[in-house]
Structure formats: structure tokens, C-alpha cells
Write a structure and sequence with these properties.
The complex is a heterodimer. Chain A is mainly alpha-helical. Chain A has helices spanning 2-38, 59-62, 82-115, 121-133, 136-146, 152-160, 175-198, 202-210, 215-243, 247-252, 260-270, 274-298, 303-307; strands at 68-73, 76-81. The chains are: A mainly alpha, B alpha+beta.
Chain lengths: 308, 359
């Protein structure tokens, strides 16, 4: 602050501070506080708002436990509230997306950081970035076309003889959603992992090899432990973005896939019940945060490691 | 167990740049061999070719008699100590040391025992559970040596491992390295640009310049009988006289210079021109000229170096010559500005060609 004042003078400093304060207060804190307050109040006709029935409670939050359905997993039948199941599947498939993103990004990150000729690196990064210049909606639709029943992917697989009949990709549960989310968020995994691997002293890789380590051992004992903070920060980003994505599940989802954000959206836009929608949104935020914290504890990653 | 290393006509090109040109050397089992040269002379390239990180463009490398072409570093019986040591910062010391055993599938208890044994060998007991960042420079050095020794290599390759240490520690580690080499009997190949290091530790030294090995000999031979001007000037100081060979007989020759005609040993000149090299410690100061090889000079500067006194003087033609007087307590040091004669023994001066370089 002192530094800012000395460099830009009182006038500019005041304007900058006020703009940041406006941004934080009016565009972040206030809307969230409003939704948070609403989430504890029941959904009422306009005439009854502020009336005797308008009292605070956890009713909106408890709605996730309404409406159980029968499901069976590994031969065991059980009944589960439909929204809890949606939430569970959202978390599960977000984890799948995160894991697959890591499996795709790590070899590429290692290649970029340690193997590729540094002169061709800018070209490579540019090629990776170009898809990001296209809007997310267009990219999701592009995948919708690729995955279509008579689309290019089926045509390719058929011509290679890998499949005998075309596959209904976007009608196979969460397949389309997972593919779309991976494509949308894989770079959020790639760059933190690339940065982490890149900061590893190449001599350490050579030293390990010189001591007789096979390639997988070098990765397991030297590269991966060094890259752990990068992997963790990439994973947190991909997981949170996937769990919070609405666009990709809406476009690439099938009749049997439901993302928790779609449930929230239905409360907002179909039921027009903003109170319950807010409650669900805060549930998603809270539970995802708890989930990520537990995962970080399990993998022994500190928040300060990620912030680097 | 130690193995000899043979390089036969080894060349290494990086694009159009030839980093190592036709290297031939036969390093004996159990020998402490140093490659000495300025940076960029190709000595590290030789080391990386022996360890397997670079394949030679031409020629054969044999370790223990067997051609190692196409073998990866993890298949060669060599252990490399990196210039920056490359210890693994995320592992405790004992895991660092036993990493080579871990990849060979040896159980944890044996690994731990072996690590502690090696820590005693390098005089660092009790450091097993520390982290790399808790150790000082010299201690890290020892851990790196222990880690390399753990895999029981037949050849240890050391890439200027002492360059990051301060002078006192460097001198101490020199003796330590030599002692470890003699205790283990492993062949050591040592890379350095520090002539003192190379001369003090090695059984034999290979001096390199611009990708070529200039001379391979034991340290005394390198210092006393350099084969060319590069070796003479890179290893130790010299007074250099330009001139022409006149009469040569029995390995001695007359050499005409602007300071007069001198007599000196004649090196292997071939058809190349030569220069006359005299070490400062072989320059004697006297008031009267001697029978031969005397240059009249005026003392221009005297600097006291501790064990010796360096005397710099200007000849009548304006050349700067220097002599060293051993500080034995009774040495007479001339005054600045005094007129004296610098004289050298013909047997202690040599006419040598320039460096052996291409083109």
C-alpha cells in the first residue's frame, strides 16, 4: 500500500483502491451474501415475503434428501435420494475427469519440460493454446458434432475396423460429459504440471538413471514427488471447474446423465425457486471444498505448496 | 572391483562443432586419472560419453575391455558425480545413498545398513536421517561420493565436484577423495580446470584443448616436460620468448630471439615454429651475466606471495620477465629498479610448438 502510494500518488491510488473495493464488495461479496441469506428462507408467494411464514431454517438444504429412488450397485439394492445421487455422481465423474486429465497431461508436460527442443517449445505452446481462443460453447458443440451418431469419430473408428457398428457416444451415461470436460480443462492440468516438472534439475533425472534406475522408477521416485505441488494445484483446478461446470454437461450430457449444477440450474430457472437453488449452490461449494481438503490431507499436500 | 577404460579414436560432434576430436587414451584399472583443460575443451563431453549420456559420433569406448556402444547409463558399471552433485532433496540422506540399491530391489534393512556403512567411510556418521538441505557444502560432497560408491561402480566419474567449495575445504576434500580412491581401489576419472587439483591428486593427467588431448602423462612429467606451449602455459607459469631455431643437435638447439641467442632443449616441433618456455622458478637472478642464457633486466615489481617471492622485470626490449625466489628465510631480494641478469639452465628451458589444434 505504501509502495502503491509512493509510485502512483494519492489520486490514482484512491481510484484503484475504490475500484477493487467496488469489485469485491458489489460484484462478489454482496451477491453471495444475498444468496446465502436467501438460502435459509422458504420459497413463498410474493405477498407472503416478510410475513409470518418467512422464517429462517435449514428446510432448503434438507430438500436434497427428498425423493428417493431405487438403485442397485454390485448386486446390492438400496434407495437413495435422487439429488444426493446426482451429487455423488458429479463428484465421482469430476474425479474421473481429473485423473484422466492428469494421465493425459503428465507425459505431455514431461515431454515439453525435459525432452522437446527448447526452440520448438513456443510453437508447441501456441498450438495448445489456439483451441482456447474459441468460445467454450463452440468447443462443446464441436465435440457434440464429433461424437454424433453419424459423426467423424464413428466414421474413423468404423473405417479403421475398430468397431462394427457406430456408437451412441452422447447417449452412454456420462461418457460425453467426461470427454467434453477433459477437453475443456486439460490445459489447467498441463501448465501447473509443466511448470513443476520444468523446475526439476535435469541432473537429478540423469543422476537417477546413472545409479541404475529404470525410467518408471525415475518418474516414481524423482519426477513425480518433485511435481507433486503442481499436480495438486492442477487437480484442484480441474476438479473444481469440472464439478462447477454447467455448459458442458448441458450440451454433451445424455438422457441418463445429470450434473449437480444442472439440478441447481433447474431450481433457479425452471422452478424459479431461488432459495432452494442458493442452498444447493452453497452445498456444492462447501462439500467440494471439504472434499478437496480431505484429498489434500490424504496426499500430504499443503495449501502453501499449491499457492506457489 | 575396478575396470580400465579405453577410448579409441573417439570423436563427438554437436552439429558442425567437433567437441572431442580423435581421443585415444587407455586408463588403467584402479587409476586416478584427470582430464585437465579450460572450459569448453571437451573434457565434460568425454565424461558424458563414458557414462553413457552421449554416444560418440565415431570411435569405440571400452569399459573393462567390453565395448559399451548403445548401453544406457543405467546399464554401465560407472557412477557419475555431478558438478552440482544432484542429490535428491526430497529424500533423507540414507535414502539418497541407497537409491542405487533400491532400484536393484534390495530390501530396506540391508539398504539402511549399507548407507550407514558408507556414511562412516566418508566420515559422516549420524547423518542418515538428515535432509540434504541441512548439510554443508563439504558434507553434501561426501554424500554424493557415498551415493556413487553404494552401487559398487567399477569406475567413478567426477565432474568438477569441488568447484563450488571454498579454498580450505577444497584442499581438504582433495586429500579425502584421494584417500577414498585408494581405500576402495575404484578407477577414478576426474574432470577439472584447476591444475593444482589435477596435479595433486592424479596418477596421470590428460591435458585437453579445443577437443584434442594434448598430452597424457604423470603430473611431474606434465609439469616438467610439457609437449607443447599450451600444456606449458596452462599448467604453471612461463616466460615465453619468440624466436627461431638455429642449430639443433642431441636434443638441444640454439634459439635466436630479440634478447640474444639462447640454448635450450628442443621439443617435438615437426615442421611448426616454436617458442622458448622458461618457468619463473628456473630463472636465477645474478649481478653479473653468466656464460650463456642471460638477459639483462631492470626490476619493475616485487610481490611477496608467502612461500615465494615473485620478481617482475623489464628487459631492454620492453618484454616483461618474471622469476620466483623461494622464501627460505635467507633469500636476498633485489631492490625495485635494480639492474640484474636473469639466467636459466639450458636443461630447464624448452623450445615447444603451440597447441595441437586443427586447421
Amino acid at each position: 500500500m505504501q509502495d502503491l502510494l509512493r509510485r502512483y500518488g494519492p489520486g490514482l491510488t484512491l481510484i484503484m483502491t475504490l475500484l477493487v473495493a467496488f469489485w469485491l464488495l458489489m460484484l462478489v461479496i454482496l451477491p453471495n451474501m444475498t444468496l446465502f441469506e436467501q438460502s435459509f428462507r422458504p420459497y413463498l408467494p410474493v405477498t407472503e415475503i416478510g410475513g409470518p411464514r418467512d422464517t429462517y431454517g435449514f428446510g432448503n438444504y434438507l430438500k436434497v434428501f427428498d425423493g428417493s429412488i431405487e438403485r442397485s450397485l454390485f448386486g446390492i439394492s438400496f434407495s437413495i435420494p435422487v439429488h444426493v445421487m446426482t451429487f455423488g455422481l458429479t463428484i465421482w465423474y469430476s474425479m474421473v475427469v481429473t485423473a484422466l486429465c492428469f494421465l493425459l497431461a503428465y507425459p505431455l508436460a514431461y515431454y515439453m519440460a525435459k525432452i522437446v527442443n527448447p526452440r520448438s517449445l513456443p510453437t508447441l505452446i501456441l498450438l495448445l493454446f489456439i483451441p482456447l481462443w474459441v468460445s467454450e460453447v463452440l468447443r462443446a458443440f464441436a465435440w457434440w458434432i464429433i461424437l454424433a451418431f453419424r459423426g467423424p469419430l464413428n466414421a474413423l473408428l468404423l473405417s479403421l475396423g475398430l468397431i462394427d457398428d457406430p456408437i451412441r457416444w452422447t447417449n452412454m451415461g456420462y461418457t460425453g460429459v467426461v470427454i467434453g470436460l477433459i477437453y475443456t480443462y486439460v490445459l489447467f492440468m498441463l501448465f501447473p504440471v509443466y511448470n513443476a516438472v520444468q523446475s526439476l534439475d535435469t541432473n537429478q533425472i540423469e543422476a537417477a538413471e546413472d545409479l541404475g534406475a529404470p525410467w518408471w522408477k525415475i518418474h516414481w521416485r524423482i519426477v513425480l514427488p518433485h511435481a507433486k505441488p503442481g499436480i495438486a494445484s492442477g487437480s484442484v483446478m480441474v476438479f473444481m471447474l469440472s464439478a462447477g461446470s454447467l455448459l458442458v454437461p448441458s450440451i454433451l450430457g445424455s438422457t441418463t446423465s445429470q450434473w449437480f449444477t444442472q439440478t441447481i440450474n433447474q431450481w433457479f430457472n425452471d422452478a424459479l425457486d431461488w432459495n432452494t437453488a442458493s442452498a444447493y449452490a452453497f452445498l456444492l461449494l462447501l462439500l467440494c471444498t471439504v472434499f478437496v481438503s480431505i484429498a489434500m490431507r490424504l496426499f500430504r499436500v499443503k495449501l502453501s505448496d499449491i499457492a506457489k | 572391483m575396478s575396470a580400465g577404460i579405453d577410448l579409441e579414436n573417439v570423436c563427438c560432434d554437436f552439429g558442425s562443432f567437433r567437441a572431442v576430436d580423435n581421443a585415444n587414451v587407455s586408463i588403467r584399472p584402479g587409476e586416478f586419472f584427470s582430464f585437465l583443460g579450460p572450459s569448453g575443451c571437451g573434457k565434460t563431453t568425454i565424461l558424458r560419453m563414458v557414462s553413457g549420456f552421449i554416444e560418440p559420433t565415431q570411435g569405440v569406448i571400452r569399459i573393462g575391455g567390453a565395448d559399451v556402444k548403445g548401453k544406457r547409463p543405467n546399464q554401465r558399471p560407472t557412477a557419475l558425480i555431478f558438478q552440482n552433485l544432484a542429490l535428491f532433496p526430497l529424500m533423507p540422506i540414507w535414502e539418497n545413498i541407497s537409491f542405487g540399491l533400491e532400484v536393484r530391489g534390495i530390501d530396506k534393512a540391508t539398504r539402511r545398513k549399507k548407507a550407514e556403512e558408507l556414511l562412516r567411510l566418508v566420515d559422516l556418521p549420524g547423518a542418515a536421517d538428515k535432509m540434504v538441505s541441512q548439510l554443508s557444502g563439504g558434507q553434501k560432497q561426501r554424500v554424493a561420493i557415498a551415493r556413487a560408491l553404494a552401487v559398487e561402480p567399477q569406475v567413478m566419474l567426477l565432474d568438477e565436484p569441488l568447484s563450488a567449495l571454498d579454498l580450505k575445504l577444497r584442499q581438504h576434500m582433495r586429500a579425502e577423495l584421494r584417500a577414498i580412491q585408494q581405500r576402495t581401489g575404484v578407477t577414478f576419472i576426474y574432470i577439472t580446470h584447476d591444475q593444482g587439483e589435477a596435479l595433486a591428486m592424479s596418477d596421470r593427467v590428460g591435458v585437453m584443448s579445443q577437443g584434442r588431448i594434448q598430452q597424457i602423462a604423470d603430473p611431474r612429467e606434465i609439469y616438467n616436460n610439457p609437449v607443447n606451449g599450451f600444456v606449458a602455459s596452462f599448467v604453471g607459469e612461463n616466460n615465453i620468448f619468440q624466436g627461431e631455431v638455429q642449430q639443433a643437435a642431441d636434443g638441444m638447439a640454439s634459439f635466436a630471439t630479440p634478447h640474444g641467442t639462447f640454448r635450450a632443449r628442443l621439443g617435438e616441433l615437426g615442421d611448426k615454429p616454436g617458442k622458448l618456455y622458461v618457468r619463473p622458478e628456473h630463472m636465477l637472478l645474478s649481478d653479473a651475466p653468466a656464460v650463456e642464457n642471460s638477459v639483462p633486466v631492470t626490476i619493475s615489481d616485487i610481490s611477496f606471495e608467502g612461500s615465494f617471492i615473485a620478481v617482475h622485470a623489464t628487459s631492454d626490449t620492453g618484454a616483461i620477465l618474471s622469476a620466483e625466489i623461494r622464501n627460505d628465510g635467507a633469500a636476498t631480494v633485489p631492490e625495485k629498479g635494480a639492474r640484474v641478469h636473469m639466467t636459466f639452465d639450458p636443461a630447464r628451458a624448452a623450445i615447444l610448438p603451440d597447441a595441437n589444434v586443427r586447421g
